[in-house]
Structure formats: structure tokens, C-alpha cells
Amino acid sequence: MNRFSDRLYRSAQEIWTKSHNHPFLTELREGTLDPERFIYYLKQDYVYLIDYAKMFAIGSMKARDLDTMGKFAELLHSTLNVEMELHRQYAARFGISREELEQTRPSPTTVAYTKYLLDTASQGPLSEAVAALLPCMWSYREIGAAYMRVPGALEHPLYREWILMYGSEEFGALADWCVGLLDRLAEGLPEQELAQLEERFLVASRLEYMFWDMAYRLEEWPV
Ligand SMILES: Cc1ncc(C[n+]2csc(CCO)c2C)c(N)n1
């Protein structure tokens, strides 16, 4: 069967491979990542997730049926209460309060990524919103599943929980649902619209790469 998601996966392959080989991720899976870089990532990711959760709210609003509406509501709930709870627990280990996490000033890359997502979701049809939010869910699913199998990765005192969360069955199932939704939404669309969806997917994939890179560089505003 010819799935639109197969086309997206192929066209983003080069970008995703660069993410997988980025030192932030190679060092995280080997357990050598400097915690300072991880803390920076957690703080930026926390404010990223606040906007990302809003994408799910927009998804719920634009859904055409109750099942889809409910699934986005479930994703919104899980982002706020499961994924962000992991960040809160990590922050507590480093003496960073919930308030401090929430007050993180977004870096240039975080601003670029979150505003790109929210602009896409609010201006376009549901299919474009899903194309833009998919690299986040799908690439983390791939990373989590792969790192669960890296010998010793789950023994690391700091990175173990992170890997367990993204390697979990629940996260896998949510990502699969989003992939399937995009395939259904793309059915029968003309090539011009498919190309537009592909572009959203590729820009978000590049921004995912930039997010790892930003954290590794501890990016700051230049002025
Ligand atoms: C930059 C960045 N990209 C992707 C994720 C992963 N992620 C964000 S929301 C979601 C699904 C529901 O919570 C998943 C898997 C992240 N945390 N940060």
C-alpha cells in the first residue's frame, strides 16, 4: 500500500539521521551528556510543551468527528499531566521549582519552532496542523524505541526515565494514531496540497534538529 506517511518518512530521512547523530542524542544514549545541557533542554522543552499542548486543543477544535476530537483531548491531557510531569520531576531533582520551569525565557529556536507550529495550526486545515506536529511525536517514538535497546542506556541514573517515557507503548500508540490520522486526511488530496503538507513536515523536522542543537550549544539571545 502507498501511504503518504511513507513518502514523508523518506523525504525527511536525511534530516532525521542528522538528529540521531547529533552529539546531544549520541551522548544521551551513551550516558555521557553533560547534565547542564540536559537541564537547559528540559527548561526549553517545558515552555515548548505549553505551546505544543495548544496544538492539540486546536486539533480538537478542527476535528470533524468525536473520536478525533476525543483523541486530541487525550493528547492534550497526556502532555500536561504525563510528559510535563516528567519534566517537573527532573527539575525537582535539580532544585528547580515548577514556577521557575514555567518562567523559562524561550530561546530563539524555541520561539521559531513553537510559533511555526501554532501559526500552521491556527491558519490552515487540520491536515496541515497534523503534518507539522507529527515530526515531534514520530521522531521521539523512534528515538525512545531505539534507546530502550541500547545496552546500558536504561541503567543511567539521569537519562533512564526520559528513555522509558518515550520508549513506552502508550507513547508509541499515540504517535501511531497521529501517523494514521495524517494518512486518512491526505487520502485523495491533489499533489499540490500533498506537497504543502510535506513542506510543513520537513520544516518541523528541521526545527526538531535545531532544538537538539540549540540545547547542546546552550543557545542564548545574541543581544
Ligand atoms: C522539541 C520536542 N519535540 C518532541 C517532543 C515529544 N513530544 C512532545 S508532545 C508529545 C506527545 C504527547 O505528550 C511528544 C511525544 C518533545 N517533548 N520536545
Automatic annotation (TrEMBL):
Keywords: Hydrolase, Thiamine biosynthesis. GO terms for cellular component: cytosol. One of its GO terms (molecular function) is thiaminase activity. It catalyses: 4-amino-5-aminomethyl-2-methylpyrimidine + H2O = 4-amino-5-hydroxymethyl-2-methylpyrimidine + NH4(+); thiamine + H2O = 5-(2-hydroxyethyl)-4-methylthiazole + 4-amino-5-hydroxymethyl-2-methylpyrimidine + H(+). CDD domains: TenA_C_BhTenA-like. The keyword Ribonucleoprotein does not apply. Pathway: Cofactor biosynthesis; thiamine diphosphate biosynthesis. Its EC number is 3.5.99.2. The active site is at E208 (proton donor). Catalyzes an amino-pyrimidine hydrolysis reaction at the C5' of the pyrimidine moiety of thiamine compounds, a reaction that is part of a thiamine salvage pathway. Thus, catalyzes the conversion of 4-amino-5-aminomethyl-2-methylpyrimidine to 4-amino-5-hydroxymethyl-2-methylpyrimidine (HMP). This is Aminopyrimidine aminohydrolase. It comes from Paenibacillus sacheonensis. The lineage of its organism: Bacteria, Bacillati, Bacillota, Bacilli, Bacillales. The gene is tenA.
